Amino acid sequence: MKNNVFKLLLVGFTLFFVFQIRAQERVIHGIITTFDSIPLIGAKVKVLSTDQTVLSDTLGNFSVGCNNKDKLKVSAMGFYDQKVKLISNTKFAAINLRLKPGAKSREYAIGYGHVSDREKLNAVASLNKNDVDFSQYSNMFELIRGRFAGVSVVGSEIIIRGTNSINSSSAALIVVDGVPSDGSILNSLPPIQVKSINVIKDGSAAIYGTRGANGVVLIETKKGGDL
After folding, report:
1. Which domain does 165 fall in, by range?
2. 9 and 50 in a common domain
3. In what order do the strands lie in the sheet with 124-128?
4. Could you state, in chain order, the average pLDDT of each consecutive group of 10 residues for the chain (227 residues)?
C-alpha cells in the first residue's frame, strides 16, 4: 500500500514539474525603443510571474522565457515603466517606452547608457498631457505653435527649422497613431483627444524615408483606458 502511495506521489510530482517546464518553454523575443525608432540599451525586462529579469542588448533586443498568459514589466531610468500583457500567440513584442519630461530625464537616459546616440535623442522634442492641459487649446495648430523650439505653423503645414526647401514642400510628415498623413488631418483632431506629441527633426527621422526628410510630428491619441 505504501509503495502504491509513494508511486502515485512520484508520478504526481513528475507531472507537476513537466508542466512547469513546459510552461516556461515559451520564449518571447522583442525590441525596446523610444520615439518609435531609437533603440534602448540595458532596459530591464521583468517577467512578473517568475521575477526573471533580462536586459536589452545594444540594439534594444531581448529574449525571455515566460508562461502563456504572462506579463512583462519594462523599465529604464528616465522613462515611464510599461507593463506588457502577453497573449497565447505572441511571439515578438515591440515595446516603445515614453521618455519622462524634463532635461534630467534625458540626462538619465544618456548617463545610464540607455541611449548611445546623444544627438539622436536631443533631436526629439516631446510634449504630453502631463506637461500641459491640451484641452485649453482650440485646435492642434494653436497647440503646436510656440510649444516646440524652431517649429512654426504655416497655413496647415508644420515647418521644422532647418528643413526648409525652395523647390519642394517644407512640411513635416504628420503621423497619427502610426498612420502617416499630411497637415490636413490636424483640422479634424481635437486637442483634448491627444495624449502626446513628439517632434523628430530631419536626421533622426530616417526610419520614415524620404517622407520624413522635413522632420516628423508623431501624435498619439487617447485610447479607452486613457479617458
Report:
1. 123-226
2. yes
3. 124-128, 194-200, 216-221, 173-176, 179-181
4. 53 48 71 88 95 95 90 94 89 89 83 85 76 87 83 87 63 89 89 89 68 86 71
